[in-house]
Structures are given as structure tokens and as C-alpha cells.
């Protein structure tokens, strides 16, 4: 018996159907057998002497197996079911009442009846077009409004099910998820400023000789803000209740130091906010806060994109805001411990609080323009309105049994300098520069050349154009410092403003007042002692701590302070 491979099409005349085919394809099925009436009519015309009966199809005699495949089309994918569009509604951070429209589509080719919608959660509601039961016509689509308020549990998690009467229909579902966020809207007391800490995490593997291997354990730094507020009457009661009910949850905190005011009125329903974004902490996908005259008048908005002069919002503003309204970038944060308050009277508190940001905070790292011996040079002098401090760290191994004299070994035989550096920032651009430097150094991970900016060596004789020898005042360099860590490289500032970097290769004491040093290359021109303005040692250094503190004395249009300590590392590796 012959076995044929192929596709069996429907024969409507003889009632043979292949149920694996779609309705659309069955509609195009061909009649593979001649109709009985056609055969008998043809015989009657040509052979009237007798008649012939057709026995086709002769299934019993010609039975055989046919191999085939199920053929699918768009019809199978979209029709004969109920669709909810979208099926998952992810609201992200719910910072204000949100109303989102979803669609329910009956893609059956016949009407269906909706008995009702079940499910829900506190603070989540759904509003349909009519009362139940309601009829859905064939291929009919209706719109429904899902409303989510900020009242309710921290996690938004609701499931709705559309219950249809027909047993053969599917009951679609809608999942609503998100996270409620409450804004911290009381203003800080600027008398004490705002303290921001930026903390990286570095694993430093050090040897007895002072050699190091450093690797970053954190992609983005942690940020924390500490401030104080004087609150009274309604604001005091508001914070009291918020701490009681929301104290352990996520907050949206304004970047108080990054404030600016609206230059024009902003109407309700606005999809963009004109503002300055250069040097600011605005970021697409993050939040911003509009604040009025008190803690009760505010609105939190979500940023979709930004340009240098405006923010584009994910959803329109709910309220109108006048010219002069304060605008802040905002970050999601948790309280680092519950705030401590001082009750000054029954209507006034002095409250101290600290927030730790819970979302990644990116910033463009600083780009160094000068490189020396494969490492960047940081040329900026520290602010010296306060004394610059420094010391040396030695790797001492001490064996002390408390009976005999201690046995001490300097395992590295080097002193690793520690040198403080202080910045005073004026204006947003300088704030941005210092922050970018902090991000470039990445805590203790990265190293740079840092000059002492001190008068370390002084030339006392003419230096020839091709000479590599310099005569200097005797400061004990040849006797104690030659070849030691942090004493090989010097920064030379000439009277004409030129900066030159040299490495000292040798030194010798001439007499009690004079010594000579040999550098790795000549200057190319004759230089007199008066041509040398300042010669300072340069050390290859990293930050001594993963945490840097910024004190915002005012907002970033004004003054800020920062301080860090650099630590020398081996420069002979």
C-alpha cells in the first residue's frame, strides 16, 4: 500500500474535514472529487442507453495514513479569547495618585457577557464603563481606569480578574505592581548646613614592603545626607505622624543643596518643566520635587528625559505652580536610624536626621589633562585658609613581651606621607568639579601624582641648557632622601608659568650649605636661580579613606566645603 505525505484539505461536498486546519484555510478548501450530479449529467448527454452510478470516494478500499502538520496563523494568536492590555501594570515609584487607562478586548467572533471584576488591594481601584452584568459585542474593546493612591501599604500588589459568563471563554487578569514613596518635605535648618558623604568600597591588599593591590567592590558609591530642621505646629505634627507610620520605608528626599526656583508660572497638566540641568543632580528615570510655601504643598514628578534647559515628565503635573516655586532633584532614600528630636515646646521640635540613598548615583568622572609616568597629575592646590596637615605612616612590625625592650622592624623601610587636601567650592561649576574628582578617584582605588605645593628645593646656581645637574641649598636630601619613596619626582614651576616634571636620579653633598641633584633630562635653555619660582616634591598617592565628606554651607549656587586625606604609595613599581 502506498503511503503519501501531504496536507489533507476539507471536502465540503462529502463531509470530510481536517480539524487541524484553521477556519480561514478550511474556507479555501478545494473540492477534490467530482460531484455525483455532474457525472450522471455528463453520461446522460453522451450515453443515453444506460446510466452509471458514481461510487467515489471509495474510502474503504483506498484507506491510507496521511502525515501532516498543524498550520497556525494570526487568527490562532489573537482571536477567540479575551485580552487585557497590558496584562502587567508596573507603576514603578508611586509618589502621587496615578490613573492609568487599560483596554479589555473581546476577540471572540460572538458576543460574551461579563459578570463582574474581582480582586484588588488597599489604595487601588478600577472603574469600568457600565454596571454588571454587561455585554461585550464580538470584537469589541472597552477602556477601564486603574487608580492608585499613595494611601496604603509600601508595596503595591493587586490582581484583578474579569469573570465572563460563558464557560468556553477565558477569564483574563491584570496585575498591578509598584512601590509607594512618601516625600520628605520639611526644609533643613541652614544654620548648620547639610553634610553629604560619598562612600566607595575598596579592597586593599598590602604587603610588608608597602606594595598594594586595590580593587573596587562597589560600582557606584553610597550617598548619605545629614541635616537638622526646626519644625512647629502642623509640620511638626505631620513629621510625627509620618515617622510613626512610614519611618522604616522608602522616602523621596529633595537634594536640598541643589535647589532652584521656577522662572515662570507652571500650569497644571504640564509635561515639561523649564529649568537649568547643567551641573545638577537631575537624571532620566529619577524624581524631582516641586515645593510650595510649606511641607503640605508639594508635588513629586518623574523625569522621562532632560535637556540643558528643561525636564520632560513621564506624567503631567497635577497642580499649578507659580513663579518662584522651589524645584529639587530627588533621590530614593531610607532613614539611617530613627531621627532624634529635641522637644523645645509642645508645638516645636529640633530634629536631627540622616538619610542613606538607596538607588545608584552616577556622575561623570573628572578628566585629568596632565599625565606623568603613566599616571595623571592633580595640579589643584588645597585651600589654605585653614592649615594643611600631614604626617608619615610607617609599616612597623613590633614584638613586645612586656618584659624586654620591644623589637621593632620597619618592614618597608619607607615613610608613606599622609597629606590633607581641602576644597572651597563657589558656584555650581566648582561643586561639579570636586564631585567629579571624587568619582574619578573612587575612594582608595585610583592613584594620582599630588605635588606638596611647598618650597621643598631651592636652586642657588645657574643651570646650563644641556646640563642635568642642579645646585641647590643643602637640605639633607643626598644624605636621607635620595631614592626613597616620594622623593624621586619633583614639580618645577618657572617664573614664566611653565610647569615641568623631572625625576631625580642622583644627588651628592658638596658642603654644609650646598648639594647637587641630577635629573633625568635637561631643560634645553639656560636658567638662572630667579627663573625657578617653586620646586615641590611629587608623590604618587591615593585617598586614605573610601569616604569623602562634603559640607554644603549654602546651596550649590553658593559655598561648599570638602576635605580628604591623600596617602602616598610606592612609586618604584
Describe this protein's structure.
The protein has 573 residues and is mainly beta. The protein folds into 4 domains: 1-78, no CATH class; 79-180, Sandwich (Immunoglobulin-like), CATH 2.60.40; 194-357, no CATH class; 370-573, no CATH class. The protein is built from 6 helices and 39 strands. The strands form 7 sheets. It has a 22-stranded mixed beta sheet that branches. A 5-stranded mixed beta sheet has the order 4-11-10-6-8, with no helix packed on it. The longest helix is centred in the C-terminal third of the chain and has 15 residues, at 427-441. The protein is elongated.
Give structural attributes.
573 residues; 4 domains; 5-stranded mixed sheet; 6 helices; 22-stranded mixed sheet; mainly beta; elongated; Immunoglobulin-like
In short, what is this structure?
By secondary structure, the chain is mainly beta.
Task: Write down the domain tally.
Answer: 4
Total strand segments: 39
Strand content: 35-45%
Shape: elongated
Radius of gyration: 40 Å
Summed up, the helix count is: 6
Structural classification: mainly beta
Distance between the termini: 86 Å
Rounded mean pLDDT is 87
How can the largest sheet be summarized? 22 strands, mixed
Instruction: List unreliable stretches of 5+ residues.
Output: 9-17, 25-36
Query: How much helical structure, as a percent, in the residues?
Result: under 10%
Strand and helix layout:
Elements: E1 4-5, H1 23-26, H2 36-46, E2 66-67, H3 74-78, E3 82-85, E4 88-94, E5 98-106, E6 112-119, E7 124-127, E8 134-136, E9 140-148, E10 155-164, E11 173-180, E12 182-183, E13 194-199, E14 202-206, E15 212-216, E16 222-232, H4 233-246, E17 251-254, E18 260-261, E19 272-274, E20 287-291, E21 298-306, E22 310-313, E23 326-335, E24 340-345, E25 348-357, E26 371-372, E27 375-376, E28 390-393, E29 396-399, E30 407-410, E31 416-426, H5 427-441, E32 448-451, E33 469-473, H6 477-481, E34 489-494, E35 499-509, E36 514-519, E37 532-543, E38 547-552, E39 559-568
Parallel strand pairs: 1-2, 4-11, 12-17
Antiparallel strand pairs: 3-5, 5-9, 6-8, 6-10, 7-9, 10-11, 13-16, 13-38, 14-15, 16-25, 17-23, 18-23, 19-22, 20-21, 20-23, 21-22, 23-25, 24-25, 26-27, 28-31, 29-30, 31-39, 32-37, 33-36, 34-35, 34-37, 35-36, 37-39, 38-39
Amino acid at each position: 500500500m502506498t503511503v503519501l505525505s501531504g496536507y489533507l484539505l476539507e471536502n465540503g461536498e462529502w463531509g470530510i474535514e481536517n480539524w487541524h486546519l484553521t477556519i480561514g484555510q478550511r474556507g479555501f478548501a478545494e473540492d477534490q472529487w467530482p460531484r455525483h450530479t455532474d457525472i450522471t449529467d455528463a453520461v446522460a448527454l453522451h450515453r443515453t442507453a444506460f446510466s452509471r452510478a458514481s461510487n467515489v470516494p471509495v474510502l474503504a478500499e483506498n484507506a491510507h495514513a496521511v502525515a501532516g502538520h498543524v498550520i497556525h496563523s494570526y487568527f490562532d494568536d489573537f482571536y477567540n479569547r479575551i485580552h487585557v492590555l497590558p496584562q502587567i501594570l508596573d507603576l514603578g515609584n508611586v509618589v502621587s495618585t496615578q490613573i492609568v487607562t487599560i483596554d479589555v478586548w473581546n476577540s471572540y467572533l460572538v458576543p460574551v457577557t461579563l459578570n463582574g471584576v474581582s480582586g484588588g488591594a488597599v489604595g487601588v481601584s478600577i472603574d469600568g464603563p457600565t454596571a454588571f452584568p454587561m455585554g461585550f459585542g464580538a470584537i469589541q474593546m472597552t477602556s477601564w481606569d486603574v487608580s492608585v493612591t499613595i494611601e496604603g501599604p509600601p508595596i503595591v500588589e493587586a490582581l484583578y480578574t474579569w469573570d465572563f459568563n460563558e464557560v468556553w471563554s477565558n477569564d483574563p487578569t491584570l496585575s498591578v505592581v509598584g512601590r509607594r514613596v512618601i516625600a520628605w518635605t520639611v526644609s533643613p535648618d541652614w544654620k548648620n548646613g547639610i553634610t553629604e558623604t560619598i562612600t566607595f568600597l575598596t579592597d586593599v591588599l598590602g604587603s610588608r614592603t608597602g606594595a598594594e593591590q586595590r580593587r573596587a567592590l562597589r560600582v557606584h558609591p553610597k550617598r548619605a545626607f545629614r541635616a537638622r530642621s526646626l519644625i512647629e505646629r502642623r509640620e511638626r505634627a505631620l513629621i510625627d505622624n509620618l515617622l510613626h507610620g512610614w519611618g522604616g520605608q522608602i522616602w523621596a528626599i529633595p537634594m536640598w543643596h541643589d535647589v532652584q526656583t521656577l522662572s515662570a508660572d507652571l500650569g497644571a497638566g504640564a509635561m515639561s518643566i523649564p529649568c537649568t540641568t547643567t551641573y545638577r543632580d537631575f537624571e532620566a528615570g529619577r524624581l524631582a520635587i516641586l515645593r510650595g510655601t510649606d511641607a503640605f504643598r508639594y508635588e513629586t514628578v518623574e523625569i522621562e528625559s532632560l535637556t540643558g534647559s528643561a525636564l520632560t515628565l513621564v506624567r503631567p503635573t497635577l497642580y499649578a505652580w507659580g513663579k518662584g516655586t522651589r524645584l529639587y532633584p530627588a533621590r530614593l532614600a531610607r532613614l539611617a536610624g530613627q531621627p532624634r528630636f529635641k522637644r523645645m515646646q509642645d508645638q516645636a521640635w529640633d530634629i536631627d536626621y540622616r538619610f542613606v540613598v538607596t538607588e545608584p548615583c552616577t556622575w561623570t568622572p573628572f578628566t585629568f589633562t596632565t599625565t606623568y609616568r603613566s599616571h595623571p597629575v592633580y595640579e589643584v592646590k588645597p585651600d589654605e585658609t585653614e592649615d594643611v596637615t600631614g604626617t608619615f605612616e610607617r609599616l612597623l612590625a613590633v614584638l613586645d613581651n612586656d618584659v624586654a625592650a620591644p623589637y621593632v622592624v620597619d618592614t618597608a623601610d619607607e615613610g608613606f606621607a599622609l597629606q590633607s587636601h581641602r576644597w572651597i567650592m563657589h558656584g555650581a561649576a566648582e561643586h561639579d568639579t570636586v564631585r567629579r574628582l571624587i568619582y574619578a578617584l573612587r575612594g582608595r582605588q585610583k592613584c594620582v601624582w599630588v605635588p606638596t605645593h611647598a618650597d621643598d628645593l631651592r636652586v642657588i646656581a645657574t643651570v646650563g641648557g644641556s646640563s642635568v645637574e642642579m645646585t641647590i641649598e643643602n637640605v639633607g636630601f643626598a644624605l636621607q632622601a635620595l631614592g626613597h619613596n616620594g622623593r624621586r619626582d619633583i614639580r618645577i614651576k618657572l617664573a614664566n608659568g611653565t610647569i615641568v616634571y623631572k625625576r631625580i636620579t642622583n644627588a651628592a653633598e658638596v658642603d654644609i650649605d650646598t648639594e647637587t641633584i641630577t635629573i633625568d633630562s635637561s631643560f634645553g635653555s639656560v636658567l638662572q636661580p630667579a627663573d625657578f619660582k617653586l620646586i615641590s616634591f611629587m608623590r604618587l598617592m591615593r585617598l586614605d579613606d573610601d569616604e569623602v565628606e562634603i559640607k554644603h554651607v549654602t546651596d550649590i549656587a553658593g559655598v561648599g566645603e570638602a576635605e580628604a586625606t591623600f596617602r602616598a604609595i610606592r612609586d618604584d613599581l
